[in-house]
């Protein structure tokens, strides 16, 4: 009986260790697996780090910024795989543990992070010279006349990406609305000038006057109601 129990414990322990190890992949396996349908790639570095080069189709939330991380992680699908990474593996390990404890079905970590990705000779996206910021003067001229909707967002922001289809439908329906896009990872001077502190931030102007604003995901109903203000 004793031998049986010991054997059973060892087998269970081995199974647990194997399961834990399968949640961490080297760069080669990670690179292959993130191209599977339905996979969500999640960069938990800062926005500044993200802009120095990131993995394909990666969303971003700074794990060390608890408010930002908590807000953006809500827009990931818990039923679909999440492949998470950072610079060296420390932050992504903590983020992955949090997600597993909070109902995410499958979370896979990139072993040793972007450092290992580079050592493996794999390419990063978004590696280029920093583009010029939109000036505050250009922005002010863009909102001066008519009905203008400003969207402060970024392609790597999970709630921004979720918001995009609603914005497209809204603008298609309301041809009289001019759309101004502010890059939340680049147009810092404009963001400061309009006091946009989070992504996404939507602002509606009428002849240069702000009549409505919302930080976070907006519904079609909210946008339509803002037009009547």
Please give a handful of descriptors for the protein shown.
229 residues, alpha/beta, Oxidized Rhodanese, domain 1, Glutaredoxin, 5-stranded parallel β-sheet, 4-stranded mixed β-sheet, elongated
How many separate domains?
2
The CATH class name of the largest domain reads Alpha Beta
CATH superfamily of the largest domain: Rhodanese-like domain
Provide the spatial order of strands within the biggest beta sheet.
Answer: 1-5-4-2-3
CATH topology of the largest domain: Oxidized Rhodanese, domain 1
Global shape = elongated
The number of distinct helices, counting runs of at least 4 residues, comes to 10
Taking Cα atoms only, what radius of gyration do you get, to the nearest Å?
22 Å
The proportion of residues forming helix, as a percent range, comes to 40-55%
What is the oligomer described by this structure? Answer: single chain
Question: What would the average pLDDT be, to the nearest integer?
Answer: 90
Quote the beta fraction.
Answer: 15-25%
Major β-sheet annotation? 5 strands, parallel
Please tally the β strands and state the result: 9
SSE order, as H and E?
A: HEHEHEHEHEHHEHEHEEH
- Name the CATH architecture of the largest domain: 3-Layer(aba) Sandwich
Low-pLDDT sequence parts: 4-21
Q: What class would the helix/strand composition place it in?
A: alpha/beta
- What separation lies between the terminal Cα atoms? 77 Å
Write the SSE topology:
Layout: H1 2-21, E1 24-25, H2 27-33, E2 40-43, H3 47-50, E3 59-60, H4 66-73, E4 82-85, H5 90-101, E5 107-110, H6 113-119, H7 136-142, E6 147-153, H8 158-173, E7 177-183, H9 188-193, E8 201-206, E9 209-215, H10 220-227
Parallel strand pairs: 1-5, 2-3, 2-4, 4-5, 6-7
Antiparallel strand pairs: 6-8, 8-9
Pfam family, one: Rhodanese
Domain Rhodanese: 35-126
Signal peptide: 1-19
């Amino acid at each position: 009986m004793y031998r049986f129990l010991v054997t059973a414990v060892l087998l269970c322990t081995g199974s647990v260790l194997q399961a834990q190890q399968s949640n961490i992949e080297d760069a080669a396996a990670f690179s292959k697996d993130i191209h599977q349908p339905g996979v969500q790639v999640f960069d938990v570095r800062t926005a500044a780090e993200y802009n120095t080069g990131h993995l394909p189709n990666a969303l971003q939330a700074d794990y060390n910024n608890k408010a930002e991380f908590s807000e953006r992680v809500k827009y990931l699908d818990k039923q679909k795989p999440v492949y998470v990474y950072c610079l060296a593996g420390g932050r992504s390990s903590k983020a992955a543990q949090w997600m597993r404890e909070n109902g995410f079905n499958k979370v896979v970590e990139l072993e040793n992070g972007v450092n290992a990705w580079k050592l493996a000779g794999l390419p990063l996206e978004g590696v280029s010279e920093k583009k010029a910021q939109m000036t505050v003067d250009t922005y002010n001229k863009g909102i001066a006349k008519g009905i203008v909707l400003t969207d402060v967002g970024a392609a790597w922001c999970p709630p921004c990406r979720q918001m995009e289809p609603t914005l497209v439908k809204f603008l298609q329906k309301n041809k009289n609305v001019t759309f101004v896009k502010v890059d939340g990872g680049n147009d810092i001077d404009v963001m400061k000038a309009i006091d946009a502190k989070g992504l996404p931030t939507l602002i509606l102007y009428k002849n240069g006057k702000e009549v409505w604003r919302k930080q976070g995901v907006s519904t079609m109903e909210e946008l339509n109601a803002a037009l009547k203000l």
